[in-house]
Amino acid sequence: MPPLPQHSTIGIIGGGQLGRFSALAAASLGYRAHIFTPEPGSPAAQVTPLATIAAYDDEAALTAFAQSVDLVTFEFENIPAASLALLSSLKPVHPSAKILEISQDRLAEKTFLNAAGAPTAPYAAVASEADLTAAIAKLGLPAILKTTRLGYDGKGQALIKTPEEAAAAYAALNPKPLILEGFIDFACEISVIVARNQAGAVSSFDPVENRHKNHILDLTLAPAQISAELAAEATRLARLIAESLGLIGLLAVEMFVTATGGLLINEIAPRPHNSGHWTLDACPASQFEMHIRSVAGLPLPPATRHADAVMKNLIGPDDMALWPAILATPSLIPHHYGKTEARPGRKMAHYTRLFPKFSLPGEFGIEDAIKPR
Ligand code: AMP
Hints:
With 373 residues, the protein is an alpha+beta fold. 31% of the residues lie in helices and 28% in strands. The protein has helices spanning 17-28, 59-68, 81-90, 97-104, 106-116, 129-139, 166-172, 228-245, 279-282, 287-296, 316-320, 323-327, 366-369; strands at 9-13, 32-37, 50-53, 71-74, 123-126, 143-147, 157-160, 178-182, 186-196, 202-204, 208-213, 216-222, 249-258, 263-269, 308-315, 332-336, 347-355. Strands 9, 10, 11, 12, 13, 14, 15, 16 and 17 form a 9-stranded antiparallel sheet that branches. A 4-stranded parallel sheet has the order 3-2-1-4, with helices on both faces. Bound molecules: adenosine monophosphate. Adenosine monophosphate (AMP) binds at residues 121, 144, 151, 154, 181, 183-184, 189, 212, 215, 266-267.
């Protein structure tokens, strides 16, 4: 397929901040973005006039949407399989429905990753309480019980420390089936974002370190403060996964750096990712531009960074109380998502501070360096 001509319309499923920045990147590249979201006034639909407000399983709305765009991509993974099949029958969908289906299901994801030669935590399928007993016998405790589908930001999972906790954890987690994962004693969490286009060109951003608070991403440090060998191995794994999937689009690969210096893949997301927000400010082409370029069949520039960066998420009303101070601090680069209601736990905005390359502040300087003044 030749590159998508300028003025074409890219349909984006999902109306959140990832869609907002992707729509802005589409505009910079000469495209229009049409957002499909059930949410009126969504972050993405605030930056483009083309929006369909309908449920993700509304077949009539999906059909009209597909007919009005040139290709379909997404910023949100939990699209029903029937909707994906319908869209795929009408227009090119990138990344493919098959890739989305793998990433929607932790069991399918781990099975795929291990077959591709990308290591994960040990795991076992749990479709019943008897399965859970067997899985605990196999993996030992502590272990983490998770829903296979619909989990995010730590929702849909429970840490099991003793056998007595197993039955309650099993009962509490829905929807079934579940998966038990061995507990990884990790040194840090990193991610690599990789883009691949139809011609097979691949570009990957440097591995970054992700720090969470209350199971929600709090800080991203770019680059991750790991050895060059480990960074190269993380990049190799992300590229291997993209190739094995036959990816057309963008993929975020989350990994654990284990206490012994190994790498295990935690999960993959075939879309822009919160841990790539720093690329808006520190890279010539951001993850969102790479997303649009890769699905549109455009050339992929190298994913180089011209600066080191720390990205800070602003979550809920408490963080947003800092917004005026952030705007008054010249070194902080603000990105608002346009959400009117700052509910606790909701990602409202982020900011980035850039540093000359190879000069991220040391461990004890980070908090001070990114504090609004
Ligand atoms: P997830 O929804 O799978 O990304 O998990 C959310 C967070 O829980 C991760 O970012 C980790 O901090 C932690 N976590 C998930 N799986 C494991 C595991 N197998 N061992 C240790 N920590 C985990």
